[in-house]
Amino acid sequence: xxxxxxxxxxxxxxxxxQAIKEFILGDPLLRRFIEDVFLxxxxxxxxxxxxxxxxxxxxxRDIYLAILGNQYGWKNADGKSPTELEFDHATQTGRERLVFxxxxxxxxxEPEMAKLVxxxxxxxxxxxxxxxxxxxxxxxxxxxxxxxxRGLLQTMPFDNSLCAGAVLKDIDEAAIEDFVETAExxxxxxxxxSRAPQAVLEHxxxxxxxxxxxxxxxxxxxxxxxxFNNIQVHCLHFFGTEKRKPxxxxxxxxxxxxxxxxxxxxxxxxxxNRPVGTRTESTQAPGDFEVPRSVITExxxxxxxxxxxxxxxxxxxxxxxxxxxxxxPGELPHGLTLEKLRVPHAxxxxxxxxxxxxxxxxxxxKAGTGTTDxxxxxxxxxxxxxxxxxxxxxxxTTIWRDWLTDAVMDQLGLNERQKKGVAYVKSTGKISNxxxxxxxxxxxxxxxxxxxxLKEHIFRQVGVRGPGVHYVLRSKKDIxxx
Length: 482
Description:
Helix content is 38%, strand content 16%. The protein is of the alpha/beta class and 482 residues long. The chain has a six-stranded mixed β-sheet, covered by helices on one side. The longest helix is centred in the N-terminal third of the chain and has 18 residues. The chain starts with a strand and ends with a helix.
């Protein structure tokens, strides 16, 4: 049985705290696993002290649940409120943490509370709510997910569940034949038994006692949309750097997974620049896209293969002037963190029956190297590293393009010499002070002044002194925090 500690500013969110406790202890499912919910009000008034923040209670609970509003609350001698101290203690002691934020307007919060909301968001998923019923819904979903991650609910994975109403006639046999031929040609499949469509489905555990799984329809169904209304990958293109009308173009793809992946990747590539030239003119091979195809493909495949198909949302792939964002419903599997994505890690497929055929088609590997390959490929193309983030109920991958457009450089106030220097670094990857002098035909003093100014905007200095000192591009995220 689990125990929960609810933390919030004591005077501001009394109604919400009490409503959550009553709901948890009264819900037929949750009360099977949660035996106690602690509130500030549970301690008799005579035993409370102004500086008593119940850190021992936080450390003894399985789950720390914070409700954050506009007020920061009473502060101790170090300027910290009980709520923030409780959050920090839950972090230090390794408690499972859940944070719910009331309202969307962070500017309306007291400055200290706005900082706490941001700090919590940098460490874990924040869920926002407008009123108490919405808070209850968010809390319920989060607690059920914790129970599921701990294996307490014993639910069948979505891809392994039977697809209601689906029969063998709903399978495209030609699609299975194409899959087998392609997988064999790629060297990742050798069928020793029957190659009949039904036998292939059984081989990949997509057919149970003559009944089709959800994965079977997603991979080889004639019309997957008939059975699922949230499987589409919606692609959008904006000319600017913000998600606002007019939309330059958009397309929704909702067929079989293999086709949808290819269509979404081609949509993105069709919006990217494709330099033409020689190796001496560019670090990219002639005809290469500004962002490697492998990076785009990996991001789209991850979104489709690892998304939470029980969620009503769908995958979005958005092309901006400075970046590509891929949004997919769901959160990282239990045990996998944003930090671990940046180093080799064990594979943790959310939908293993989908992942296996994708592996056979060389869309994915089984080594847990997908995200690290993306990072390496971006570095090789002299692009900023991709970023990964959890935004509410969606996981977001951001791939940075060449964000230093002429309009951006004009906005930053760069002179013509500096623009020429930026173009040089885009091509070669770095520039030194002597190279800048020669390139722009200026004096050392002018070059130093220009490069110092560029360090404030878009360059990062490598080295401290001597002939090895040079400058490389920083990412937009490093500079603008976006």
